[in-house]
């Protein structure tokens, strides 16, 4: 019959693509949201051409600044002073140091089997 080894070979999936051909992940779109340069460039072009569109582009730039101000004011920790940030950082470093000391202490008790690499 025709369902022998030749029939099975046609059903096998193609081999996976090599890693070298994979494209890097695209940059997040958020980076373009923070760029004011294209709008400034458009304003300069409109002014060079004595175009009436300059008011529209200026309003777009104004709106973008307002959006960024809202975004910045809603960021977590924006109301924390640099001194408070330094204090939080110092506290977190102290916690890490304490936890590392405890981890070393527990490792020295030999109560756990640590796999050898």
UniProtKB/TrEMBL annotation:
Top-level taxon of the source organism: Eukaryota
Pfam family of the protein (one): Med9
Keyword S-adenosyl-L-methionine: no
Segments of this protein annotated with the region Disordered: 1-32
SUPFAM superfamilies: Mediator hinge subcomplex-like
Gene Ontology CC: mediator complex
Pro residues bias: start-end ranges: 12-29
Localization (cell): Nucleus
Keyword tags: Activator, Coiled coil, Nucleus, Transcription, Transcription regulation
GO molecular function term, any single one: transcription coregulator activity
Gene3D superfamilies associated with the record: Mediator complex, subunit Med21 (6.10.280.10)
GO biological process: regulation of transcription by RNA polymerase II
Record-linked CDD domains: Med9-C
Known function: Component of the Mediator complex, a coactivator involved in the regulated transcription of nearly all RNA polymerase II-dependent genes. Mediator functions as a bridge to convey information from gene-specific regulatory proteins to the basal RNA polymerase II transcription machinery. Mediator is recruited to promoters by direct interactions with regulatory proteins and serves as a scaffold for the assembly of a functional preinitiation complex with RNA polymerase II and the general transcription factors.
Protein family membership: Belongs to the Mediator complex subunit 9 family.
Subunit structure: Component of the Mediator complex.
Name this polypeptide is given: Mediator of RNA polymerase II transcription subunit 9
Organism: Taeniopygia guttata (Zebra finch)
């Amino acid at each position: 019959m025709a369902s022998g080894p030749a029939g099975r070979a046609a059903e096998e999936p193609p081999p996976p693509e090599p890693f070298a051909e994979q494209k890097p992940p695209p940059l997040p779109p958020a980076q373009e949201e923070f760029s004011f340069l294209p709008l400034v460039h458009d304003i300069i072009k409109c002014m060079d051409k004595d175009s009436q569109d300059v008011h529209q582009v200026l309003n777009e730039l104004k709106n973008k600044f307002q959006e960024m101000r809202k975004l910045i004011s809603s960021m977590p920790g924006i109301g924390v002073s640099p001194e408070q940030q330094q204090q939080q950082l110092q506290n977190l470093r102290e916690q890490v140091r304490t936890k590392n000391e405890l981890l070393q202490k527990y490792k020295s008790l030999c109560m756990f089997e640590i796999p050898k690499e």
